[in-house]
Amino acid sequence: MPTDLLSPAASVQPLHFHATPKPAPQDDAGTQRWNVPDVQALFDLPFSELLYRAQTVHREHFDPTEVELATLLSVKTGGCPEDCGYCPQSVHFDTGLTAGKLMGVDAVREAAQRAKQAGATRFCMGAAWRAPKDRDVDAVAELVRTVKEEGLEACATLGMLSDGHAEILRDAGLDYYNHNLDSAPDFYGEVITTRDYQDRLDTLERVRGAGVKVCCGGIVGMGESRRQRAALVAQLANLAPDYPESVPINNLVKVQGTPLADQPDLDPLEFVRTIAVARITMPRARVRLSAGRQQMSEAVQALCFVAGANSIFYGEKLLTTGNPDVEADMGLLKKLGLQPRRGHGG
Ligand code: SAM
Ligand code: DTB
Ligand code: SF4
To answer: N or C end of the chain: smaller count of CB under 10 Å?
Structure first.
Protein backbone atom coordinates (compact mmCIF):
# COMPACT_ATOMS: atom_id res chain seq x y z
CA MET A 1 0.00 0.00 0.00
CA PRO A 2 1.36 3.42 -0.84
CA THR A 3 1.52 5.67 2.21
CA ASP A 4 2.38 9.33 2.49
CA LEU A 5 5.97 8.18 2.91
CA LEU A 6 5.87 7.56 -0.81
CA SER A 7 4.07 10.68 -1.81
CA PRO A 8 6.15 13.34 -3.51
CA ALA A 9 3.82 16.06 -2.28
CA ALA A 10 4.13 15.02 1.35
CA SER A 11 7.84 14.33 1.18
CA VAL A 12 9.09 17.33 3.12
CA GLN A 13 6.70 17.21 6.07
CA PRO A 14 8.06 15.81 9.35
CA LEU A 15 6.89 12.25 9.85
CA HIS A 16 4.57 11.61 12.81
CA PHE A 17 3.59 8.23 14.17
CA HIS A 18 -0.05 8.96 13.39
CA ALA A 19 0.61 9.95 9.76
CA THR A 20 -2.47 9.01 7.74
CA PRO A 21 -1.83 6.86 4.68
CA LYS A 22 -2.92 8.45 1.42
CA PRO A 23 -2.30 7.39 -2.15
CA ALA A 24 0.66 8.84 -4.05
CA PRO A 25 -0.21 11.01 -7.06
CA GLN A 26 -0.08 9.07 -10.30
CA ASP A 27 -0.01 10.09 -13.94
CA ASP A 28 -2.07 8.52 -16.72
CA ALA A 29 0.37 5.64 -17.08
CA GLY A 30 0.07 4.87 -13.38
CA THR A 31 3.61 6.04 -12.64
CA GLN A 32 4.42 8.40 -9.81
CA ARG A 33 5.75 11.70 -11.10
CA TRP A 34 8.46 13.39 -9.12
CA ASN A 35 9.43 16.96 -9.77
CA VAL A 36 12.98 18.09 -9.07
CA PRO A 37 12.12 20.43 -6.13
CA ASP A 38 10.29 17.59 -4.34
CA VAL A 39 13.25 15.25 -4.86
CA GLN A 40 15.66 17.94 -3.72
CA ALA A 41 13.47 18.48 -0.64
CA LEU A 42 14.13 14.84 0.25
CA PHE A 43 17.88 15.44 -0.09
CA ASP A 44 17.51 18.48 2.18
CA LEU A 45 15.82 16.57 5.04
CA PRO A 46 17.68 16.13 8.32
CA PHE A 47 19.88 13.05 7.83
CA SER A 48 18.13 10.86 10.41
CA GLU A 49 14.69 11.82 9.07
CA LEU A 50 15.76 10.90 5.53
CA LEU A 51 17.21 7.56 6.60
CA TYR A 52 14.16 6.75 8.71
CA ARG A 53 11.87 7.36 5.76
CA ALA A 54 14.08 5.39 3.38
CA GLN A 55 14.35 2.45 5.75
CA THR A 56 10.57 2.49 6.32
CA VAL A 57 9.88 2.41 2.57
CA HIS A 58 12.51 -0.30 2.16
CA ARG A 59 10.81 -2.54 4.73
CA GLU A 60 7.47 -2.21 2.98
CA HIS A 61 8.91 -3.88 -0.12
CA PHE A 62 11.96 -5.93 0.82
CA ASP A 63 13.47 -8.08 3.52
CA PRO A 64 15.88 -5.50 5.00
CA THR A 65 18.43 -8.21 5.89
CA GLU A 66 18.87 -9.42 2.30
CA VAL A 67 21.45 -8.15 -0.20
CA GLU A 68 21.76 -9.24 -3.82
CA LEU A 69 25.26 -10.13 -5.03
CA ALA A 70 25.93 -9.32 -8.69
CA THR A 71 29.23 -10.15 -10.34
CA LEU A 72 30.58 -8.06 -13.20
CA LEU A 73 32.68 -9.26 -16.09
CA SER A 74 34.16 -7.09 -18.80
CA VAL A 75 33.60 -9.29 -21.86
CA LYS A 76 35.03 -6.69 -24.25
CA THR A 77 37.44 -4.22 -22.75
CA GLY A 78 38.65 -0.80 -23.93
CA GLY A 79 38.94 0.88 -27.30
CA CYS A 80 35.56 2.60 -27.00
CA PRO A 81 34.97 5.56 -29.38
CA GLU A 82 32.79 7.46 -26.88
CA ASP A 83 34.27 10.21 -24.71
CA CYS A 84 32.51 9.65 -21.36
CA GLY A 85 34.73 11.74 -19.07
CA TYR A 86 34.72 9.21 -16.22
CA CYS A 87 35.56 6.14 -18.24
CA PRO A 88 38.93 4.38 -18.42
CA GLN A 89 37.80 2.49 -21.54
CA SER A 90 37.47 5.47 -23.88
CA VAL A 91 40.04 5.78 -26.70
CA HIS A 92 40.04 9.54 -26.07
CA PHE A 93 42.02 9.14 -22.82
CA ASP A 94 45.32 7.48 -22.09
CA THR A 95 44.64 5.32 -19.05
CA GLY A 96 47.14 2.59 -19.87
CA LEU A 97 44.39 0.08 -20.60
CA THR A 98 44.96 -2.59 -23.25
CA ALA A 99 41.95 -3.08 -25.50
CA GLY A 100 40.74 -6.65 -25.96
CA LYS A 101 38.42 -8.70 -28.20
CA LEU A 102 35.07 -10.13 -27.20
CA MET A 103 35.55 -13.05 -24.81
CA GLY A 104 34.54 -16.54 -25.85
CA VAL A 105 31.94 -18.86 -24.39
CA ASP A 106 34.36 -21.04 -22.41
CA ALA A 107 36.00 -18.16 -20.53
CA VAL A 108 32.60 -16.66 -19.74
CA ARG A 109 31.27 -20.02 -18.53
CA GLU A 110 34.24 -20.38 -16.18
CA ALA A 111 33.75 -16.87 -14.80
CA ALA A 112 30.02 -17.49 -14.31
CA GLN A 113 30.71 -20.75 -12.49
CA ARG A 114 33.22 -19.03 -10.21
CA ALA A 115 30.74 -16.22 -9.49
CA LYS A 116 28.00 -18.70 -8.64
CA GLN A 117 30.35 -20.71 -6.45
CA ALA A 118 31.22 -17.53 -4.55
CA GLY A 119 27.51 -16.84 -3.94
CA ALA A 120 26.47 -14.41 -6.70
CA THR A 121 22.98 -14.75 -8.18
CA ARG A 122 23.36 -12.21 -10.96
CA PHE A 123 26.05 -11.99 -13.63
CA CYS A 124 26.50 -8.77 -15.57
CA MET A 125 28.55 -8.62 -18.76
CA GLY A 126 29.91 -5.26 -19.89
CA ALA A 127 31.28 -4.38 -23.31
CA ALA A 128 33.05 -1.13 -24.23
CA TRP A 129 31.02 -0.45 -27.34
CA ARG A 130 29.28 2.72 -28.44
CA ALA A 131 26.66 0.47 -30.01
CA PRO A 132 27.03 -3.24 -30.81
CA LYS A 133 26.82 -4.42 -34.42
CA ASP A 134 24.34 -7.15 -35.37
CA ARG A 135 27.06 -9.80 -35.20
CA ASP A 136 28.16 -8.54 -31.76
CA VAL A 137 24.61 -8.94 -30.47
CA ASP A 138 24.46 -12.50 -31.82
CA ALA A 139 27.77 -13.31 -30.11
CA VAL A 140 26.64 -11.81 -26.79
CA ALA A 141 23.35 -13.72 -27.08
CA GLU A 142 25.48 -16.87 -27.03
CA LEU A 143 27.20 -15.63 -23.86
CA VAL A 144 23.80 -14.91 -22.29
CA ARG A 145 22.72 -18.50 -23.00
CA THR A 146 25.90 -19.71 -21.33
CA VAL A 147 25.26 -17.65 -18.18
CA LYS A 148 21.66 -18.83 -18.01
CA GLU A 149 22.80 -22.46 -18.32
CA GLU A 150 24.81 -21.91 -15.15
CA GLY A 151 21.63 -20.86 -13.30
CA LEU A 152 22.41 -17.18 -12.87
CA GLU A 153 20.38 -14.10 -13.72
CA ALA A 154 21.93 -12.50 -16.79
CA CYS A 155 22.50 -8.79 -17.32
CA ALA A 156 24.36 -7.08 -20.17
CA THR A 157 25.54 -3.56 -20.86
CA LEU A 158 26.67 -3.10 -24.44
CA GLY A 159 25.90 0.53 -25.27
CA MET A 160 23.12 1.79 -27.53
CA LEU A 161 20.85 -0.85 -29.05
CA SER A 162 19.27 -0.75 -32.50
CA ASP A 163 15.84 -2.12 -33.45
CA GLY A 164 15.64 -5.86 -32.92
CA HIS A 165 18.72 -6.17 -30.68
CA ALA A 166 16.82 -6.26 -27.38
CA GLU A 167 14.55 -8.99 -28.77
CA ILE A 168 17.54 -11.18 -29.71
CA LEU A 169 19.00 -10.77 -26.22
CA ARG A 170 15.60 -11.43 -24.63
CA ASP A 171 15.20 -14.64 -26.62
CA ALA A 172 18.60 -15.77 -25.40
CA GLY A 173 17.30 -15.38 -21.83
CA LEU A 174 18.62 -11.94 -20.85
CA ASP A 175 16.95 -10.80 -17.62
CA TYR A 176 18.22 -7.19 -17.41
CA TYR A 177 19.82 -4.68 -19.75
CA ASN A 178 21.97 -2.03 -18.04
CA HIS A 179 22.07 1.38 -19.65
CA ASN A 180 22.63 4.34 -17.35
CA LEU A 181 21.38 7.90 -17.69
CA ASP A 182 24.51 8.74 -15.70
CA SER A 183 23.66 12.35 -14.76
CA ALA A 184 21.05 15.09 -14.85
CA PRO A 185 20.15 16.27 -18.37
CA ASP A 186 21.71 19.70 -17.70
CA PHE A 187 25.00 18.25 -16.48
CA TYR A 188 25.36 15.49 -19.08
CA GLY A 189 27.03 17.71 -21.70
CA GLU A 190 29.85 18.52 -19.26
CA VAL A 191 30.83 14.85 -19.20
CA ILE A 192 29.94 13.33 -22.58
CA THR A 193 29.81 14.91 -26.03
CA THR A 194 29.64 11.92 -28.40
CA ARG A 195 26.02 10.91 -27.75
CA ASP A 196 23.12 12.67 -26.13
CA TYR A 197 20.60 12.05 -23.40
CA GLN A 198 17.84 11.23 -25.86
CA ASP A 199 20.00 8.43 -27.37
CA ARG A 200 20.07 6.84 -23.95
CA LEU A 201 16.31 7.23 -23.47
CA ASP A 202 15.76 5.63 -26.89
CA THR A 203 17.78 2.56 -25.92
CA LEU A 204 15.88 2.25 -22.64
CA GLU A 205 12.63 2.33 -24.60
CA ARG A 206 13.83 -0.47 -26.87
CA VAL A 207 14.76 -2.56 -23.84
CA ARG A 208 11.35 -2.00 -22.24
CA GLY A 209 9.61 -2.63 -25.55
CA ALA A 210 11.19 -6.07 -25.76
CA GLY A 211 10.08 -6.93 -22.23
CA VAL A 212 13.62 -7.03 -20.83
CA LYS A 213 13.96 -5.61 -17.32
CA VAL A 214 15.66 -2.23 -17.10
CA CYS A 215 18.78 -1.62 -15.02
CA CYS A 216 19.44 2.11 -15.11
CA GLY A 217 21.18 4.47 -12.74
CA GLY A 218 23.97 6.98 -12.70
CA ILE A 219 27.21 8.28 -11.28
CA VAL A 220 27.58 10.86 -8.52
CA GLY A 221 30.70 12.75 -7.50
CA MET A 222 31.41 14.12 -10.98
CA GLY A 223 31.14 17.76 -9.85
CA GLU A 224 27.36 18.00 -10.16
CA SER A 225 25.27 20.02 -7.68
CA ARG A 226 22.75 18.55 -5.22
CA ARG A 227 19.99 19.85 -7.46
CA GLN A 228 21.53 17.94 -10.36
CA ARG A 229 21.68 14.77 -8.27
CA ALA A 230 18.00 15.33 -7.50
CA ALA A 231 17.32 15.84 -11.22
CA LEU A 232 19.03 12.54 -12.07
CA VAL A 233 16.93 10.69 -9.50
CA ALA A 234 13.77 12.42 -10.78
CA GLN A 235 14.59 11.30 -14.35
CA LEU A 236 15.00 7.72 -13.19
CA ALA A 237 11.90 7.73 -11.00
CA ASN A 238 9.78 9.21 -13.82
CA LEU A 239 10.87 6.81 -16.55
CA ALA A 240 7.76 5.58 -18.38
CA PRO A 241 5.94 3.29 -18.10
CA ASP A 242 7.65 2.68 -14.77
CA TYR A 243 10.93 3.31 -12.99
CA PRO A 244 13.77 0.78 -13.55
CA GLU A 245 13.65 -2.59 -11.80
CA SER A 246 17.27 -2.10 -10.89
CA VAL A 247 19.05 1.18 -10.09
CA PRO A 248 22.85 1.24 -9.81
CA ILE A 249 24.20 4.27 -7.95
CA ASN A 250 27.90 4.60 -8.76
CA ASN A 251 30.33 6.79 -6.86
CA LEU A 252 32.86 8.08 -9.38
CA VAL A 253 36.00 5.91 -9.48
CA LYS A 254 38.73 8.40 -10.36
CA VAL A 255 41.00 6.91 -12.96
CA GLN A 256 44.30 8.56 -13.91
CA GLY A 257 44.22 9.81 -17.48
CA THR A 258 40.47 10.54 -17.52
CA PRO A 259 39.26 14.17 -17.38
CA LEU A 260 37.63 13.48 -13.99
CA ALA A 261 40.77 12.01 -12.39
CA ASP A 262 41.26 14.97 -10.04
CA GLN A 263 37.64 15.56 -9.16
CA PRO A 264 37.26 16.35 -5.42
CA ASP A 265 35.62 13.57 -3.38
CA LEU A 266 31.89 13.75 -2.85
CA ASP A 267 31.04 13.93 0.87
CA PRO A 268 30.26 10.26 1.74
CA LEU A 269 27.09 11.29 3.59
CA GLU A 270 25.85 12.91 0.37
CA PHE A 271 26.35 9.55 -1.33
CA VAL A 272 24.25 7.91 1.42
CA ARG A 273 21.57 10.57 0.90
CA THR A 274 21.49 9.75 -2.82
CA ILE A 275 20.86 6.08 -2.04
CA ALA A 276 18.09 7.01 0.42
CA VAL A 277 16.37 9.31 -2.07
CA ALA A 278 16.57 6.62 -4.78
CA ARG A 279 14.96 4.16 -2.36
CA ILE A 280 12.11 6.51 -1.43
CA THR A 281 11.34 7.53 -5.02
CA MET A 282 11.68 4.01 -6.49
CA PRO A 283 10.34 1.82 -3.68
CA ARG A 284 10.24 -1.51 -5.53
CA ALA A 285 13.58 -1.19 -7.34
CA ARG A 286 16.76 -3.02 -6.40
CA VAL A 287 19.00 -0.11 -5.48
CA ARG A 288 22.60 -1.10 -6.05
CA LEU A 289 25.50 0.36 -4.13
CA SER A 290 27.71 0.10 -7.21
CA ALA A 291 31.14 1.43 -8.19
CA GLY A 292 33.25 3.14 -5.55
CA ARG A 293 32.94 0.69 -2.65
CA GLN A 294 36.67 0.00 -2.56
CA GLN A 295 37.23 3.63 -1.65
CA MET A 296 34.37 3.64 0.88
CA SER A 297 34.60 2.82 4.60
CA GLU A 298 32.57 -0.07 6.01
CA ALA A 299 30.65 2.46 8.10
CA VAL A 300 29.50 4.37 5.00
CA GLN A 301 28.53 1.13 3.27
CA ALA A 302 26.54 0.16 6.38
CA LEU A 303 24.68 3.49 6.19
CA CYS A 304 23.93 2.79 2.51
CA PHE A 305 22.27 -0.50 3.49
CA VAL A 306 20.25 1.31 6.15
CA ALA A 307 19.30 3.86 3.46
CA GLY A 308 17.84 1.05 1.36
CA ALA A 309 20.63 -0.29 -0.85
CA ASN A 310 20.01 -4.00 -1.35
CA SER A 311 22.44 -5.03 -4.05
CA ILE A 312 26.21 -4.77 -4.53
CA PHE A 313 28.78 -5.68 -7.13
CA TYR A 314 30.59 -8.67 -5.75
CA GLY A 315 34.00 -9.97 -6.81
CA GLU A 316 37.41 -8.31 -6.79
CA LYS A 317 36.94 -6.43 -10.03
CA LEU A 318 34.28 -4.14 -11.44
CA LEU A 319 34.93 -3.82 -15.21
CA THR A 320 38.50 -2.52 -15.21
CA THR A 321 38.92 -1.14 -11.68
CA GLY A 322 39.05 -2.76 -8.25
CA ASN A 323 36.25 -3.81 -5.92
CA PRO A 324 36.50 -5.21 -2.37
CA ASP A 325 37.52 -8.88 -2.34
CA VAL A 326 35.03 -11.63 -1.64
CA GLU A 327 36.31 -12.34 1.89
CA ALA A 328 36.07 -8.67 2.88
CA ASP A 329 32.49 -8.46 1.60
CA MET A 330 31.41 -11.68 3.28
CA GLY A 331 32.98 -10.35 6.50
CA LEU A 332 31.10 -7.06 6.17
CA LEU A 333 27.74 -8.73 5.52
CA LYS A 334 28.27 -11.03 8.51
CA LYS A 335 29.23 -8.12 10.75
CA LEU A 336 26.03 -6.31 9.73
CA GLY A 337 23.81 -9.39 10.01
CA LEU A 338 22.95 -9.23 6.31
CA GLN A 339 22.40 -12.30 4.14
CA PRO A 340 23.15 -12.76 0.46
CA ARG A 341 20.02 -13.15 -1.62
CA ARG A 342 19.56 -16.78 -2.49
CA GLY A 343 19.29 -18.04 -6.08
CA HIS A 344 16.18 -19.59 -7.54
CA GLY A 345 17.38 -23.17 -7.45
CA GLY A 346 19.27 -22.91 -10.75
N1 SAM B 1 29.68 1.01 -23.01
C2 SAM B 1 28.46 0.77 -22.39
C3 SAM B 1 27.75 2.02 -21.94
O4 SAM B 1 28.37 3.02 -21.68
O5 SAM B 1 26.53 1.99 -21.85
C6 SAM B 1 28.54 -0.20 -21.23
C7 SAM B 1 29.70 -0.16 -20.28
S8 SAM B 1 29.88 1.34 -19.31
C9 SAM B 1 31.46 1.10 -18.60
C10 SAM B 1 28.70 1.12 -18.00
C11 SAM B 1 28.59 2.17 -16.94
O12 SAM B 1 29.70 2.10 -16.07
C13 SAM B 1 28.56 3.62 -17.35
O14 SAM B 1 27.33 4.04 -17.82
C15 SAM B 1 28.90 4.32 -16.05
O16 SAM B 1 27.71 4.59 -15.33
C17 SAM B 1 29.73 3.28 -15.29
N18 SAM B 1 31.11 3.74 -15.12
C19 SAM B 1 32.08 3.74 -16.06
N20 SAM B 1 33.23 4.25 -15.57
C21 SAM B 1 32.98 4.58 -14.28
C22 SAM B 1 33.76 5.17 -13.25
N23 SAM B 1 35.03 5.52 -13.46
N24 SAM B 1 33.19 5.38 -12.05
C25 SAM B 1 31.89 5.02 -11.84
N26 SAM B 1 31.11 4.46 -12.77
C27 SAM B 1 31.64 4.26 -13.99
C1 DTB C 1 27.05 0.23 -13.48
O2 DTB C 1 26.19 1.10 -13.26
N3 DTB C 1 28.24 0.21 -12.92
C4 DTB C 1 29.03 -0.90 -13.43
C5 DTB C 1 28.01 -1.63 -14.35
N6 DTB C 1 26.88 -0.77 -14.33
C7 DTB C 1 28.39 -2.04 -15.69
C8 DTB C 1 30.30 -0.47 -14.04
C9 DTB C 1 31.22 0.28 -13.11
C10 DTB C 1 32.50 0.54 -13.81
C11 DTB C 1 33.51 1.20 -12.95
C12 DTB C 1 34.79 1.49 -13.69
C13 DTB C 1 35.49 0.29 -14.22
O14 DTB C 1 35.71 -0.69 -13.46
O15 DTB C 1 35.87 0.31 -15.38
FE1 SF4 D 1 32.45 3.66 -23.87
FE2 SF4 D 1 30.65 2.92 -22.05
FE3 SF4 D 1 33.06 3.88 -21.31
FE4 SF4 D 1 31.31 5.55 -22.39
S5 SF4 D 1 31.08 4.42 -20.45
S6 SF4 D 1 33.50 5.39 -22.94
S7 SF4 D 1 30.28 4.19 -23.86
S8 SF4 D 1 32.65 1.98 -22.39
So the answer is: N
